[in-house]
Amino acid sequence: MVITFIRIAERFLATETLLSRTRLQRSTFAELSVIGQQLLDIGHASESVRVLEAALRVPHAGVDHQRVLACVLSTLAAACWALDRFHASIVYSLRAIAVANTLRNQCCTVFLIFTLAV
Q1: What tens digit of pLDDT does each residue of 36-95 get?
Q2: pLDDT tens digits, residue range 51-65?
Q3: Quick one: which of 27, 28, 47 has its CA closest to 37?
């Protein structure tokens, strides 16, 4: 448990440095999104889902929020898939694709569809 906390803290500090270079630094939505992604990366899928779903409840207007939203939804889909919550995973994937379509970002849309297919 302590090692996990240290790994999360180290990754969070690195991410804070990256966020400080952007205008997303003061975005609670962006910070929760990053934490959720990091939790999934180290194998804590259920905690990742809780954090990312909390991020969706935070007002997320601001810089590039649609792109971050697409990433959050995609990460939620992956976390739900890891938890065998297949229906929720598909729903989040479809929402991510819909957001990507609003951005008219064909590369992002194709990537998300490929991810859903895998």
Answers
A1: 888 898 899 999 999 999 989 887 655 467 778 888 999 999 999 999 999 999 999 999
A2: 999 989 887 655 467
A3: 47
Does the domain formed by 2-117 have CATH 1.25.40.10?
yes
Residue 61 has φ and ψ, to the nearest 5°, of -70, 150
**Inter-CA distances, 82 with 24, 33, 61, 76, 85, Å:** 28, 18, 29, 10, 7
Domain range summary for the chain, segments of one domain joined by +? 2-117
Give this prediction's pTM. 0.72
